[in-house]
Amino acid sequence: MKLRPALLASLSVVALCPDPAAAQAIPGGEIVVEGEGLAPPPGDAAYSTLTIDRYRLTHLAGGRLEEALADVAGLASYRRSDSTSSHPTSQGITLRGLGGNASSRALLLLDGVPQSDPFGGWVAFPAYLPDTLARIRVMRGGGSGVQGPGALAGTVEMTSAGPDMLPTLAANVRYGSRDSLDSALYGATRAGSGFVGYGASYRRGDGFIPVVAEDRGAADILAWYEQGNLALRAGIDADADTQLQASVRGFVDRRGGGTAFTGIRSEGVDASLRAVGTGRWQWSVLGYVQARNLASGFASVDDSRDTARPALDQYQVPSTGIGGRVEVVPPLGGGWTLRLGGDVRSVTGRTQERYIFTGTTPTRRREAGGTSRTLGGFTDLNYQSGPWTLDAGGRVDFWRIGQGRLIEQNFSGEPPITDSRFAPRTGVEPTGRIGAAYRLSPLVTLRAAAYRGWRLPTLNELYRPYRVGADATAANAMLDPEHLSGVEIGADLVAGPFGRLTATLFHNRLEDSIANVTLGQGPGSFPGVGFVSGAGVYRQRRNLDAVTTSGAEIALHLKLGSYRIDAGYAYSDPRVEAGGEAAPLDGLRPAQTPRHSAHGTFGWQSAGGIDVSATLRYLGPRFEDDLNTIRLGSAVTLDGSVEVPVTQRLSVQVSGENITGAQVVSAIDGDGVTERARARTIFAGVSVRFD
Fold first, then answer.
1. How far is CA 472 from CA 465, 469, 521, 532, in A?
2. Model pLDDT, residue 664
3. Could you read off the pLDDT of 118-138 as tens digits, one per residue?
């Protein structure tokens, strides 16, 4: 479980490749590079938005990015497990109950760069250190063409902190339950007309046994983890109106899956370069490259759970994403703001696997993968006059899916069992949004919006068959893109810096929704996967007619003196519309989509610097499967932390996750074996800071 030193070597190799960020102009003509790009369009006031500020990002009980995102009611990954215990491929993010499989239906960006895995669309949460972020801004709803394609359920924008927010040096280390160790180092320093920033973290732990005590056997073992990341950023003024910023980041993630033969290895390196003009004509140019690789083992366990045997060795899943964007904001004046630009993204990836084992020896191998590209242009026009803010934006994307293949053959050297080569496909997708906000009073703003967005299937959905336990799911190279149409109305009540209450009602329709559709029950042989035992079911990725969802979202932020309250509630009721072979799903809810979710965080800071926070979360019940036959119950969890300063620079902290030890069910298989998502974890540590 040792992290390989290749991470540092990889970072040095890609440091010359293109990252994002930018700068802010201040009065008097002086340019201060703060690591941010162009300001959000004024028209964003017409849409449902929520910001997670830096205070919250630096006061997380577990210190993980997904913990911060859980503060957005209705935002969820496919499974309830976090990034220390889940399988990485289950951690796509979505909003408003528009899930159904593990691919992200929300567009996640860091300083303008897409962050989802190029091959599978999931998110590598261990790659991020929340302490180095300035804020996370979440815009619910689709059609946000300024940021790029793929924003079906919403857009999540992460912004790196600049030297105005970061100390010169900060470090913390914590030790906790099950021999857990968390450590982090970060900071920034100004250098001439620019700055250099850095961040690194390392965490490890013995983990817990995922299978609940009453179901486990000798084959069930601890799901350990070891993870690290490193990020370097630099910014400089090229002239009075132009800033350049480069960054490079990498991560390594190792996990055990809870039985023998289920080890997981994930790693990646990203680099990007951005130039931002802050003069009369504002502009931004961004280029980036992502390199990812995943290796994962899967096992079959006998009925008594005494013995585990290898079932699949996904020994390499390399993928690359390369892209860029150009944006211009001409000086219109008169209350008008116009943004024009374009973006391109090219993705290549494949999975390489060994399967059908005799004992521990594989007898067959599989390769599946391909390429996809999008090229789009966008425009967004805003108008502000008196109490009105109006927004209209649109984009046109050209897409191409190519070089698709699925090859399966015996190691004995015989001709391939499967040699499928798929013809290239192309298409054009026009999408857009319109919105209006009306300031009814200095405190109250009403808003309404309509939008249409789209998402291209991932290479994983198109080409890779897979198995979980006895169940098998076939790929589908003919999947169509997903299309979402939606409307929403809402109100924002803002009382200066002291409080904000937002409420939104929405209706979304996701046409051609991609889901894993149950088509048969074993035993038997099925297309694309082969033999399925009597304990398993056969599924294939299919485009459903649609998933419709209506619901409501409420978010509250209060800051009263030394007290702080953040709370949120989301209700959504997604329903499948399906015919043909998928007709049994008609009227059911997509897998892993709860109706209700809620959270509340209470914080207090004393005059002497003592900091206390506690977060209560409600995780609503959901169904494990598409046929809604296996129900996962609700759960309530409590996280919290207490930090006490010892000196001006040194403080001590005690924190806990799932303090009450609630059983949060992650999965139940066809045999009724239950897996839990998390265990009680208590940490104690120290931190130092030099400003």
1. 8, 8, 10, 7
2. 94
3. 999 999 999 999 999 999 999
- Check pLDDT > 80 for residue 260: yes
Strand (E) or helix (H) holding 135: strand 133-140
What's the burial of 403, exposed, middle or buried (CB within 10 Å: 0-12/13-18/19+)?
A: middle
Residues 6-690: name the CATH superfamily. Answer: TonB-dependent receptor, beta-barrel domain (2.40.170.20)
Task: Let me know: does 314 contact 293? Beta carbons within 8 Å.
Answer: no
Residue 191: per-residue pLDDT:
87
Looking at the chain, the number of H-run helices and the number of E-run strands are 4, 44
- What is the rounded distance in angstroms from the CA atom of residue 27 to the CA atom of residue 400? 46
% the chain with pLDDT above 90: 78
The two tokens of residue 247 are 């960054």
The torsion of the CA quartet 673, 677, 682, 684, rounded to 10 degrees, works out to 130
| Token reading at 425 | 């496909």
**For position 35, what pLDDT does the model report?**
66
What pLDDT does 436 receive?
A: 97
| Segments of 411-465 assigned E as strands | 418-422, 425-439, 444-455
Domains of the chain: which residue ranges? 6-690
Q: Is the pLDDT of residue 316 over 60?
A: yes
Beta bridge partners of 495: 499
Span 412-458, pLDDT tens digits: 888 899 999 999 999 999 999 999 999 999 999 999 999 999 999 99
Three-class SS of residue 57?
helix
With a CB cutoff of 8 Å and minimum separation 6, the contacts of 3 are: 202, 226, 228, 252, 254
CA quadruple 510, 514, 515, 521: dihedral sign: positive
257 phi, psi to nearest 5 deg? -95, 0
Contact 139, 148 (CB under 8 A): no
